Amino acid sequence: MAIRLTDVANEAGVSLATASRVLNGSARKPAAEISDKVRAAAEKLGYFPNAQAQALARASTKLVGLVVRDIADPYFSTIARGVQRGLGDSGTQLLLASTDSEPEREIEAVKAFMSQRTDAIILSGSRGHSEDEGLLRLIGNYQENGGQVVVIGQPLASTGGIQVDNQATAENLAGELIRAGHRRFVVLAGDENLLTSRHRAQGFLAKLKRTGLAAMEVVHGAFSREGAYMAMSDYLRERAPEESGQQVCVFCVSDVMALGAIRAIRESGLRVPEDIAVVGFDDIPTLEDVTPAISTARLPLEEIGRWAGEMVLSHGDARKTVVTGTPVLRESSELRTENR
């Protein structure tokens, strides 16, 4: 026979209302000794609070939805882990949806989280040039009904969150590479319709221009490992590295793309960095397992996720935080001896 809240109240010797306030949550808190009696009775009888009753009692479901572009990408899985850390021991459960870069699936995910009455929705992932009016209307309705929206990446109107200054970070990375002695650059710029890849490429190219340099080539393609592999393969077929002169440094607008580029370089019988230097962006955990160690721009990905989780708990809808990454030069961008 199922144990009911009434059974717990009888066991603890309290009213049904008091037992509900203790186990389902309420702004009215019974005395500590009474709360202890009720919890002890619930544990003894094996009673588990009803989630729906809890939501009605405190106007909260203790659910948060996280929407990412690709959960298989270490960038997003690291952020997801950080969000979980940020929610901590609050009792809030994290629901996850992956869109595979399809705007329609992002809208479907938001609708699903709305139907589950989540307390907040966190959107993480690059956006296109223009904001989706359908998504903005959904978010507006959700906020009007008390829901929070936190955005990681590019901000949306009326939302708070963590914005990554991709352009400034890419400029700083280009500056470090120039100071290290690099002068010949190729940019694997990813999808120019995505703001993340576009801003990273723009920042890098802007720094080259201010220094009196220009990229030898800017190659667009999918913002993915496979996209970079194909773009790098095409580049190497059309323009084999010169036997003499300064080596080329390939800037990839994400670490995942850098991994794809390195694969193409090695399949062409070339070496990194001896023949071609490679640089990424993000500093995903996967880089720890790669040889040579890949130069990149480090973003505090797990911390970004944690801040988003903490923002949800503190109801920080309007707060915006801007994060700038740090250049980290490693073995993959070392100059050949004759270029030093």
Automatic annotation (TrEMBL):
<keyword id="KW-0238">DNA-binding</keyword>
<keyword id="KW-0804">Transcription</keyword>
<dbReference type="InterPro" id="IPR001761">
    <property type="entry name" value="Peripla_BP/Lac1_sug-bd_dom"/>
</dbReference>
<dbReference type="Pfam" id="PF00356">
    <property type="entry name" value="LacI"/>
</dbReference>
<feature type="domain" description="HTH lacI-type">
    <location>
        <begin position="3"/>
        <end position="58"/>
    </location>
</feature>
<dbReference type="InterPro" id="IPR028082">
    <property type="entry name" value="Peripla_BP_I"/>
</dbReference>
<dbReference type="InterPro" id="IPR010982">
    <property type="entry name" value="Lambda_DNA-bd_dom_sf"/>
</dbReference>
<protein>
    <submittedName>
        <fullName>LacI family transcriptional regulator</fullName>
    </submittedName>
</protein>
<keyword id="KW-0805">Transcription regulation</keyword>
<dbReference type="Pfam" id="PF00532">
    <property type="entry name" value="Peripla_BP_1"/>
</dbReference>
<dbReference type="InterPro" id="IPR000843">
    <property type="entry name" value="HTH_LacI"/>
</dbReference>
